[in-house]
Specification:
Number of domains: 1
Oligomer: single chain
Number of strands: 5
Organism: Pedobacter cryoconitis
Pfam families: adh_short
Number of helices: 5
Radius of gyration: 16 Å
Structural class: alpha/beta
CATH class: Alpha Beta
Helix content: 40-55%
Mean pLDDT: 93
CATH architecture: 3-Layer(aba) Sandwich
CATH topology: Rossmann fold
GO molecular function: oxidoreductase activity
Keywords: Oxidoreductase
Strand content: 5-15%
Protein name: Short subunit dehydrogenase
């Protein structure tokens, strides 16, 4: 049976690669991107198996709306791949407030908003898996990636906590 997979940040990078691989194996993919036109190649190649969704993960309300759109379109969501994010390069002392907030909005709060939106759906379905995309830089640090490191440490802490919160529901967090 094919899975219904919601992937954030599917317009390029790992998100695009995973979307193509999952579609090729026969799954259905809700692919999100800030610019929905960046998903046209997936739609051209895979037709109705891909559901393009415009989403900026920085917007909490939009995250909840996207999850509801996907559920309404496919009837369920089996897997969330929380992938959207970006790397900010620069020394901590040179990072502006706006850059720091943007890094955390996307890399941490985007993950949080999607988790908050998807867990009730998966709880109601009594099934589902959440895959949080982090980095080895959430375990160790490298210079000039301080804010990126911090955002991924935060994702790891959030993910470990969520895993304990949903443990009684079964294996919802990978």
């Amino acid at each position: 049976m094919s899975k219904i997979i919601l992937i954030t940040g599917a317009s390029r990078g790992f998100g695009k690669l995973w979307a193509k691989a999952l579609l090729k194996r026969g799954d259905k993919v809700a692919a999100t991107a800030r610019n929905i036109e960046d998903l046209n190649d997936l739609v051209s190649e895979f037709g109705n198996s891909v559901f393009p969704v415009k989403l900026n993960v920085d917007d909490r309300e939009a995250c909840f709306e996207a999850v509801q759109q996907v559920k309404a379109h496919f009837g369920r969501i089996d897997v969330l791949v929380n992938n959207a994010g970006f790397g900010l390069f620069g020394a901590i002392e040179e990072t502006t407030e706006q850059q720091a907030r943007a890094q955390m909005e996307t890399n941490f709060f985007g993950v949080l908003w999607l988790n908050q939106a998807i867990v009730p759906v998966m709880r109601a379905q009594n099934s589902g898996h959440i895959i949080q995309v982090s980095s080895f830089l959430g375990l160790i640090t490298l210079p000039v990636l301080g804010l990126y490191n911090a955002s991924k440490y935060a994702v790891n802490g959030l993910s470990e906590t969520l895993a304990t919160e949903v443990k009684a529901l079964g294996s919802m967090l990978a």
